[in-house]
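Regression test case RT-17, inverse folding.

Input:
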């Protein structure tokens, strides 16, 4: 591990807005803020929104700035990336934002029932070869039900037509309400926060349209995969430095 990463990890240990719990510790001791985020960390009753796979925390911090009457938690396993947003939030004195370093597969261990109102999935890996790992798969939706309020909102913002189509078809198949959706966000007039991450700006500069949908997740009811065949993206949106066709709009 590089010296720079070690320094970031060491500094993050001092940040009051960062929580890092290895699964072994979590399994043995549990997470002390589970069910206590409002009372013991945010010190208010404002609704909580999670960003899953927050990367550098650009979107989490942007949301916290824009909505001071809401609380936001960015979640990712990449600590060196998370450092950027966490430090920015500390430097700006943002008290309505926190960061949690863990695998998203473990997310239900950190929040109690009805503790979270909304989720944001921003430019998630589409996982075209592994349905179980898609963050909008029924595998993950059932996990979100452990802590999301009944009918809670899941926002999906992506450059990937594959992930957008997969999520839309999955929601339609399970009769999940979708109050907002578009395959070209910036040609629409949907009330989506005007926050653009570094990678989003890249996709736009290459002529790739940004897709967005918002679905509601009820607490009850069986969820099943649609089984539909979906055309694959012809570029690797999750390998930011490897593209097969930068000049082809999506």
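Golden output:
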């Amino acid at each position: 591990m590089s010296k720079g990463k070690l320094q970031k990890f060491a500094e993050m240990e001092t940040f009051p807005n960062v929580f890092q719990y290895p699964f072994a510790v979590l399994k043995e001791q549990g997470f002390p803020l589970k069910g206590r985020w409002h009372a013991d960390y945010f010190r208010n009753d404002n609704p909580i929104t999670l960003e899953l796979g927050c990367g550098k925390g650009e979107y989490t911090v942007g949301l916290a700035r824009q909505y001071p009457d809401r609380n936001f938690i960015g979640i990712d396993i990449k600590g060196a990336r998370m450092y950027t947003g966490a430090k920015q939030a500390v430097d700006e004195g943002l008290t309505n934002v926190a960061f949690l370093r863990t695998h998203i597969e473990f997310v239900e261990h950190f929040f109690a029932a009805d503790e979270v109102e909304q989720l944001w999935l921003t430019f998630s890996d589409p996982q075209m070869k592994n349905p179980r790992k898609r963050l909008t798969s029924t595998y993950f939706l059932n996990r979100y039900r452990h802590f999301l309020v009944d009918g809670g909102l899941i926002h999906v913002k992506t450059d990937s037509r594959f992930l957008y189509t997969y999520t839309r078809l999955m929601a339609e198949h399970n009769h999940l309400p979708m109050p907002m959706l578009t395959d070209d966000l910036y040609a629409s007039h949907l009330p989506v926060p005007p926050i653009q991450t570094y990678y989003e700006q890249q996709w736009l500069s290459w002529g790739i349209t940004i897709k967005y949908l918002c679905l509601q997740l009820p607490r009850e009811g069986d969820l099943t995969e649609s089984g539909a065949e979906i055309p694959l993206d012809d570029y690797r949106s999750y390998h930011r430095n490897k593209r097969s066709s930068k000049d082809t709009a999506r």
